[in-house]
Design a protein that fits this description.
By secondary structure, the protein is an alpha+beta fold. The chain has four helices and seven strands; from the N terminus they run αβββββαββαα. The chain binds zinc ion (ZN).
Length: 167
């Protein structure tokens, strides 16, 4: 299996890599049948350790950027009830040309991951910025409803009434 994998276009016998890529060692095979180190073309944004994360075939190698994300906590149980994680990703052996290109993957532990072109990721980022603004508005509404007085935008007259002074 490893010998035939050498013939694929992902492996170069000498350092001739395209701009934006580096030669990286990758472990191909399996611990049971033996792992062979081959050099693959790996995009500069990829932070995967392709030796540690061995694959059966060079065609199984995909590229992963650093994961980043945000969790949604709950004061009911103390754990995150929802977690959003994303990273740059590409699968150079995919049948889908868009999967072969660098794109943004949003991980979905419950089902299919989201795959976004850079334009789609920009649009989604705009939506999430709007969501974040609404989250702040909701927080302010809840804080005011509970009699909180830490909001800097609170009407000064209301603040004086709360403090027992004449408005
Ligand atoms: Zn890589």
């Amino acid at each position: 299996m490893a010998q035939s994998a050498i013939a694929t276009s992902n492996v170069h016998p000498f350092p001739a890599v395209r701009p934006g890529f580096k030669l990286a060692p990758a472990a191909i095979g399996s611990p049971a049948d033996g792992l062979q180190i081959v050099y693959i073309e790996c995009p500069n944004w990829c932070t995967e350790d392709h030796v540690n994360e061995w694959q059966h075939s060079v065609d199984d190698v995909s590229h992963w950027g650093d994961s980043f994300g945000a969790g949604i906590p709950s004061f009911v149980n103390g754990d995150d009830v929802y977690e959003l994680a994303a990273r740059v990703y590409s699968d150079p052996s995919s049948q889908d040309p868009q999967m072969r290109l660098a794109h943004v993957m949003v991980e979905n532990p419950a089902g299919m991951d989201g795959h976004l072109t850079p334009d789609m990721a920009d649009e989604t980022a705009d939506d999430l910025i709007k969501l974040a603004a609404k989250l702040r508005t909701a927080a302010r509404t809840a804080r005011l409803a509970n009699g909180g007085d830490s909001d800097p935008d609170m009407d000064e007259a209301l603040r004086r009434v709360r403090e027992g002074q004449s408005a």
